[in-house]
Design a protein that fits this description.
The protein has about 110 residues and is α+β, with helices and mostly antiparallel strands. It is built from 5 helices and 3 strands; from the N terminus they run ααβααββα. The chain has a 3-stranded antiparallel β-sheet with strand order 1-3-2. The termini are far apart.
């Protein structure tokens, strides 16, 4: 799966989006701290963090007995660029279609 595909798949889940928001606010946080902010168990948070980590959206580093996670924005930036390029391509196609539809008919 492409990096963009992995990011979009990870971002499809609302709990993972909440986790990213919480991490963006906190800077770094453990799964236990994040679970305290969300309506899911610590075990569920850990599973979601694994998916986010697999997509490159977060990284974890051991700090004593816990793992502290932080957001890695680069994959989000790359995905946003891909979506912007896709939107621009469609915009160009729609402009060309509009021009063709509004052009005077050709004599036959």
């Amino acid at each position: 799966m492409s990096d963009v595909g992995a990011v979009l798949l990870a971002m499809a889940d609302p709990t993972r989006r909440l986790l990213l928001d919480a991490l963006a606010e906190e800077g770094t946080a453990s799964a236990t701290r994040l679970a305290g902010r969300l309506p899911v168990s610590r075990q569920a948070v850990v599973k979601h963090l694994r998916v986010l980590e697999g997509a490159g959206l977060v990284s974890g580093a051991r700090a004593g007995r816990e793992v502290r996670y932080e957001v890695r924005p680069e994959p989000l930036d790359a995905s946003a660029r891909w979506m912007a390029n896709l939107a621009a391509t469609w915009d160009r196609r729609l402009v060309a279609l509009k021009r063709a539809a509004e052009a005077p008919p050709r004599p036959t």
